[in-house]
UniProtKB/TrEMBL annotation:
It comes from the Eukaryota. Belongs to the NUP186/NUP192/NUP205 family. This is Nuclear pore complex protein. It is found in: Nucleus. InterPro entries: Nup186/Nup192/Nup205. Coiled coil: none annotated.
Amino acid sequence: MLFANDVVLIDETRGGVNDKLEVWRQTLESKGFWLSRTKTEYLECKFSDVTHEDEVVVKLDSQALKLSDDLHLNEVDSVRLLVSANQEWGLLGREPLEIFRLAAGLWYTERRDLITALYTLLRAVVLDQGLEPDLVADIQRFLDDLINAGVRRRLISLLKELNLEEPSGLGGPNCERYILDSRGALVERRAVVSRERLILAHCLVLSVLVVRASPKDVKDVFSALMDSAVGLSGSTDTLSHQITYSLLFSLVVALISDALSAVPDKTSVLSRDVSFRHEFQESVMVAGNDPVVEGYVDCLRSAWVVHLMLIHDGLDAKDTSASASSNNDIRNIYSCLEVIFSNNVFLSWLNKILLTPAYQNDDEDMIYMYNAYLHKMITCLLSHPLAKDKPHPAGLCCSDSSNISMGACPILQK
C-alpha cells in the first residue's frame, strides 16, 4: 500500500483550487489511488477581511472541505510567520509536528506582545507614577483615539472569542494542544490563551479609567461576566477566576467612577441615560438558580445601587423630568437594597472574591485599584441616608437594616 501525506495545492482563488483539485482527483483515481474526503482540508490566507468568493465552496468531488482547524492568518502574517520561524529555529531537518509547534508559538508570542503593549500604555496613564507629564498626555490622547475607535469593544469580544473551542482561542478538537514558546519549552495552548485573556481583562478595567464606559459597553461587559461566572461552578482554575474578577471590577469601576464624576473633563455618560438605567435595573434584578453566578450578581448589585444613589444625589429636584426619574430611581434603590441585604452581599464579596487565593495572587497594582474602588463603594453604601434609614414605601417589604453600619461591615474591617 502507498500513502502520500502533506501534499499542497496552491492557487490565488477558491475556484482555482477547485479546478486543480478536480484534475488531481481524476488523475490519481484513474490510477487506482483514493483521496480522503475527511482528512483533506484547506487553509485560506487573506490580505484583508474582504472576500469576493463568499459563494464559492472549496470541495473535493462533490464533498465540501472544511477550513483547517489550525491558525487563521492573513497572507502577510503567514509569510512573516514562516520567515520568522525559519530564522529563529532553522526548520531544516525538524519533524513536521515540531515545526508546527514552533510556528504556532511564534504566532502566539506576537499576539501576546501586542496585547502587552496596550496594557503597558494603559498602565502608564492609570497606574504608573513618575512619568513625564507631556509623555502621559501624549499617551492619553493616543489611547482616547484607540478607545473611541472601538478598541474597548474589541477587547470585550476577544475575551469571549478566545474562550471558545476554536483555532484562534482554546483550540478546536483537531488542533494541536501544545506549542513551543520562545525558550523552546513545551506549553499547553489553553494556558497561553488564558493568560492572554487575563491581560485583556486587565486592559478592560484600565480602559474604563481612560475613557468612560458607554451604556453599550456596560451591557456587553455584564453579558461577558455572566458567561464567565457560569463556567466557574466547580472550577479551581486560578486564571478563570481572575478573569471573572476583572470583568466584575470593570463594571464596579465604570459605575462608581461615572456616578462620582470626580474628574471635571470626564463627562458622566451613564447617569444621563434614563433608558439604560431602566434596562440595566431589570437585568441585574433577575434572580438566578446558579449560586456562583448569583453571588457575582449580588456583588454587582451593590455597585449598581451605589451608582443609583449617587445619581439621585445629583438630580435637580426642580426639573420635572428629573423629579420623575428620581422617583423611579428611589424605587429601584429600595428594591436593590432589599435583595443585597437579604443575601448578605458582604459575605459574597468576602467568600467568593476577596479571601480567595486567586484574588490575592492577582497583579498587585490591579488589586490595589480594585480595593480602592471597593472601599469607595462600601463606604458610600453604608453611609448613605437611603441605605441607613431605608423607609418602607407602599408595596415594598424591607428588612431592618439598622444593624448594618460601617463598623459592622466585614469588608471594611478586613
